[in-house]
Amino acid sequence: MSLQIALVFALAAGITAEPSLCSGVESKIEPDMRILESDISHEKAIAAADQLRGMIESDELGGEFHFAALNQLKIIQGHVLLTQAHSDRRELGPSSAEAGDSTRALCGWLGKEGFWYD
Fold first, then answer.
1. Which domain of life does the protein's organism represent (predicted)?
2. Whole-structure pTM over 0.85, yes or no?
């Protein structure tokens, strides 16, 4: 019985998950440096905002923390683009001009600016 319950939860999670919008986009960013759509989820954006808030409060934005702060900002920026693309698709339809524009903005960002600082 517990296997069936786990299967139901797994299937339900798959149904509610948003599809990947940029899976076929070519990126010139080195594979180990790429930010992926899975890196800019709602949960990760909240965690990034919390971490950035802590860094700001403790004045840890320079020196060795500089790139860590910039990486947190990238997660938040990517999440905003991802959220807009999914919202446009849901509200206006996947073939709408707005959905196309916001998806291109997201995928273009992932392909050119979606990289981690060292």
1. Bacteria
2. no
